[in-house]
Specification:
The chain has 81 residues and is mostly helical. It is 79% helix and 0% strand. The protein has one domain. Keywords: Membrane, Transmembrane, Transmembrane helix.
Length: 81
């Protein structure tokens, strides 16, 4: 079963990180305005980029670990007599 909440947060984190690194902001978008005014102020700009980067990295690590763990578990289960 697909975990839709995980997929939503994964792609949201990736989109946020992409927007921050590519500097494509639209002031009409309320979510991006929130990011710009709270995370990405001049004194918090580096912290905002690092926060979004670590969120994306942990999502990637979580996905990689659990997908491999599922594969190992399934392969062990079906290899038992």
């Amino acid at each position: 079963m697909i975990n839709y909440i995980y997929l939503f947060t994964y792609y949201l984190g990736f989109a946020c990180y992409f927007c921050v690194t590519e500097n494509i902001f639209s002031r009409s978008n309320l979510f991006v305005t929130f990011l710009v005014e709270n995370l990405l102020k001049r004194k918090h700009f580096l912290w905002g980029k690092l926060t979004l980067f670590w969120v994306f990295l942990f999502h990637e690590a979580y996905f990689m670990f659990f997908s491999h763990a599922k594969l190992i578990f399934v392969s062990i289960t079906f290899s038992l007599p």
